[in-house]
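[step 3/7] fold_predict: job queued, chain A
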Amino acid sequence: MNPQPSPDVLVIAASNGENLKLAERFAETARDQGRSAEVLDLTEVALPLFSPRALSQGTPEALASLQAILQAAPHWVICAPEYNGSIPPVLTSAIAWLSVQGDDFRALFNGRPIAMATHSGGGGHTLMAALRLQLSHLGAHVVGRQLVSNTNNPAKDASIADLMARLLRLPPADA
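[step 4/7] structure written:
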């Protein structure tokens, strides 16, 4: 776990391609707005695919530090590509692992301000709908605006700045 103070914003990248680049832009924007920010590349977290069989083999070692990093950051941005019209497996699996920790599967997400963004070849809108539905079900406060971009419609700096400002206006989950 990182001994430095927790960031104001944790930007979670659910791929190590264009969405990781987009995540870096969000983190830079948060810093430009006077906030601390870190990027978490979920593809670097050593979690097996969630399944009942994997769960019966015990909790993955990486899960406790992932949960601590997420818990400590008051605001999140999730940058994820659309996979077959929905949420990418690395993000779905991480959420599944996190949701089986403790007695309240919503605890990590309840009241958590979260913004969503995508750079996706598949359009991205069905990902945004699926992710909004899942995060809302888990109790998160999902920012109304979202960012959908692709090669032909790249993310604009002004849109990233606006989405970040909207996210940071929401009170942290424990406030």
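[step 5/7] annotate
The longest strand covers residues 113-119.
The chain has one domain: 9-169.
exit 0
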